[in-house]
Design goal:
By secondary structure, this protein is α/β, with parallel strands linked by helices. Helices cover about 45% and strands about 15% of the residues. It has eleven helices and ten strands. The strands form two sheets. The chain has a six-stranded mixed sheet with strand order 1-2-3-5-7-10, sandwiched between helices. It is globular, with a radius of gyration of 19 Å.
Length: about 260
């Protein structure tokens, strides 16, 4: 039985964590399936939504400690969850995290790596390596430092205490807060639908530029220029200008 599923509808790919009986703790199978689903979704849709099953009390408890080789040489252990987290900014399309319940540890980093976060009011976010006595990888620290005020990121790491959805919204980490699962679904559907309706080549180019400026990817200047030129030469430019002049909604093809 898969621990992660991928569903694609109306140019929106929904990636769902389905190990709720184990608090969606990230074991090696789940991490592998998650990476594959995010990659496939980004290639087949215009926006990806990452979520747990509706109504869960725990979005994810983080890395499954049964899968962590505690005494391994950190220079030799290739932690697979780090690759998935660091890979999210490199995806071609925006990723929206739809969060309800608590999210801990590596899963919190996974969520923070997404482009946008929508959360229910009962959601909390905690990053907890200091509770376990383990160091933390630099790319993950970089994502937190760029997504939150530095003093807030430091407090989260130093205390291992959670912040609420309302606090995260106030810090600019969370895009919007929903009262319950139903409102979360509605907000995410509106946001994903809006993004999917706009010019995909422009969004891809802008996303690549922003993440490169933020130091989250190693895309070089030539690749960024190529993405921008592809968008500029596309049929979508003609369609966007024509729709504006004709006062109608554009129909972007991504070509």
């Amino acid at each position: 039985m898969p621990l992660v599923t991928l569903d694609i509808r109306d140019a929106v790919a929904t990636v769902t964590l389905r190990r709720s009986d184990k608090l969606n703790s990230l074991n090696s199978q789940m991490i592998g399936e998650l990476g594959d689903a995010l990659d496939a979704g980004s290639r087949q849709a215009r926006v990806v939504v990452l979520r747990a099953e509706p109504g869960v009390a725990v979005f994810s408890a983080g890395h499954d400690l049964d899968d962590v080789p505690i005494h391994a040489d950190p220079h030799e252990w290739d932690n697979p969850v780090e690759a998935v987290i660091a890979g999210i900014p490199a995806l071609d399309v925006p990723v929206i995290a739809a969060v309800e319940g608590t999210v801990w540890g590596a899963a919190c980093n996974l969520v923070v790596a997404c482009d946008l976060i929508v959360a229910t009011r009962n959601a909390t976010f905690a990053i907890t390596p200091a509770k376990l006595g383990v160091p933390y990888f630099r790319a993950g620290l970089s994502i937190f430092a760029r997504s939150l005020p530095l003093h807030v990121a430091k407090a989260m790491f130093y205390t291992a205490e959670p912040i609420t959805a309302d606090q995260a919204h106030g810090f600019g980490l969370v895009h919007s807060v929903a009262e319950d699962t139903s409102e979360l679904d509605a907000q995410v559907a509106r946001l994903a639908g809006r993004i999917a309706s706009l010019a995909p080549l422009t969004i891809r180019s802008v996303k690549a530029e922003l993440d490169a400026l933020d130091g989250l990817t190693d895309v070089d200047e030539g690749q960024l220029r190529e993405l921008a030129e592809r968008a500029w030469r596309s049929d979508d430019v003609k369609e966007g200008v024509a729709a504006f002049r004709e006062r109608r909604r554009p129909r972007f093809s991504g070509r």
